[in-house]
Design brief:
Glycinamide Ribonucleotide Synthetase, Chain A, domain 4, 12-stranded mixed β-sheet, 451 residues, OB fold (Dihydrolipoamide Acetyltransferase, E2P), 4 domains, 9 helices, Alpha-Beta Plaits, alpha+beta, elongated, binds adenosine-5'-triphosphate, 5-stranded mixed β-barrel
């Protein structure tokens, strides 16, 4: 019995326009009277390090069934009419309905996808059952090949189509396979078509105020760097996207934003802000294009290179790896500069291929090394006078008594860094990175430190 259909979509946009969430919105706009939307539409971010992503490597999933579900939730507004989803479903979809759904999806993708862009390779899948979640886990953490996807689609008797190199089928299948262990929401507001490509009118002050007042939302505004994060800078149909843990708070948050008229909006369930992309590894097991958590000790004094990027080497029992806080991570670099050889840390970040480097997203300072500073030359134990230095690395000697010493008088240096978690600022935050605001809300005993 087929009760409902899972629809997965990916890779329809390009840097010059389009948006896969808008494709999903148009599908919902088209089918909302004839079908039931089951649960929230899903915006599923996949491996943030793959070289061929356009922007945020987002894929979409919709669960569609027969009308008649009982418990309803408001999930958006399209054409001035509220859109609802149902949290229950009963009736089975007929074969003609499945065929109809595929025709709708296919027509909308073929109308909206930016296939003229060489990097846009759309794909859609319609599945009666979710694939095993393992394919989602792999797609969010590693590289997946199409050869891994086709057998899943065949086993599940999927209706599907890939365009051009068909890569979009990877994200489309993985998005359906997502089984949330942790999840957040994003309310996406869209612009009317006549405004696409023009400057967005969204009051930064209203976003900043909303960010302060609604603590279940996150990554809205970077007060230090004056960056209004909810507004994209591409010419896509999105006006803004507000992220948070509470769907109702997001609707309240959206009401507080002063903007140009909102054409339509939708609430998506997402894996954003969950750290799903990260895997705990030792250094020898780190591969390019993955995202890792590595525990180790700082091996050298951090240094700054041209462009303002700050680097240090991390060491564990299996090897060493460079870690970088790039210039866009702004004040986070000040934290990294305060590290000292011997500090015990956990680094969180994506792995760049050439050279193999961890691009830092978060840092957990676990234990600070004792740092000793020379205060004066050693004192002669015989005459009580200060000894004289014999030159670099040659120790000290008392010119009166001839007594020698290798060590000057030392005192413990006051460290400027405290143990705890540090994160890159909102302006540099990756979609999947779990903000400390969320981590602290879930675990109040967590040591969270602001940069
Ligand atoms: P968006 O702009 O919607 O946030 P994006 O445009 O950056 O996302 P896509 O255009 O969807 O990214 O391009 C990513 C492509 O990579 C898609 O074709 C997707 O199927 C594919 N893909 C996603 N994850 C993986 C993975 N782990 N391994 C291989 N291919 C992947």
């Amino acid at each position: 019995m087929v009760t409902a259909i899972w629809i997965g979509l990916d890779d329809t946009d390009s840097t010059t326009g389009g948006c896969t969430t808008y494709v999903a919105r148009t599908i919902l706009q088209t089918i909302t009277h004839d079908y039931e939307i089951i649960g929230y539409p899903r915006l599923v971010r996949l491996n943030p390090n793959i070289p061929w992503k356009t922007r945020g490597n987002g894929a979409l999933c919709l669960h569609i069934g027969q009308p008649g579900g009982k418990i309803k939730r408001t999930i958006g507004m399209i054409d001035g009419v509220e859109v609802h989803c149902s949290l229950t479903f009963t009736e089975e979809l007929t074969a003609p309905q499945q065929q109809h759904l595929e025709t709708v999806v296919k027509t909308i993708i073929e109308t909206q996808a930016r296939v003229d862009d060489e990097n846009t390779n759309p794909g859609y899948v319609l599945l009666q059952e979710k694939p095993e979640p393992g394919i989602y886990t792999k797609a969010v953490t590693q590289l997946v090949s199409l050869e891994e996807i086709y057998p899943i689609l065949t086993t599940h008797h999927a209706r599907y189509q890939g365009y051009k190199n068909c890569r979009g089928l990877i994200g489309a299948t993985a998005a359906v396979a997502w089984e949330p262990l942790d999840k957040t929401f994003e309310l996406i507001a869209y612009r009317s078509e006549n405004r696409w490509g023009t400057k967005r009118q969204v009051s930064a002050a209203s976003v900043q105020q909303m960010d302060t007042e609604l603590q279940s939302t996150f990554d809205n505004y970077d007060s230090t760097n004056h960056h209004n994060r909810i507004v994209p800078n591409s010419p896509c149909p999105i006006l803004y996207g507000i992220r948070g843990d509470d769907d109702l708070d997001l609707i309240a948050a959206s009401d507080r934003i002063d903007t140009e008229p909102v054409d339509s909006w939708l609430l998506f369930e997402t894996n954003q802000g969950t750290d799903d992309h990260l895997q705990q590894h030792c250094i020898a097991d780190v591969h390019p294009f993955e995202s890792v958590i590595i525990r180790g000790s700082v091996d050298n004094t951090p240094y700054t290179i041209t462009g303002g990027h700050v680097l240090f080497t991390l060491k564990d029992h299996t090897g060493t790896i460079p870690c970088a806080a790039y210039e866009p991570t702004k004040e986070f670099r000040t934290v990294v500069r305060q590290l000292h050889p011997g500090d015990l840390v956990e680094v969180y970040g994506g792995v760049r291929e050439q050279p193999l480097t961890v691009n830092l997203e978060k840092l957990n300072v676990l234990d600070l090394a004792l740092v000793m500073l020379k205060t004066e030359n050693p004192v002669c134990p015989v005459c009580g006078k200060h000894m004289k230095s014999k030159g670099t690395n040659q120790g000290y000697k008392c010119i009166t008594c001839g007594v020698r010493s290798d060590t000057p008088t030392l005192r413990e240096s006051q460290r400027l860094l405290n143990p705890g978690f540090y994160e890159v600022p909102v302006c540099a935050r990756r979609h999947l990175s779990k903000p400390l605001r969320r981590m602290a809300a879930a675990q109040p005993s967590l040591l969270v430190t602001s940069t």
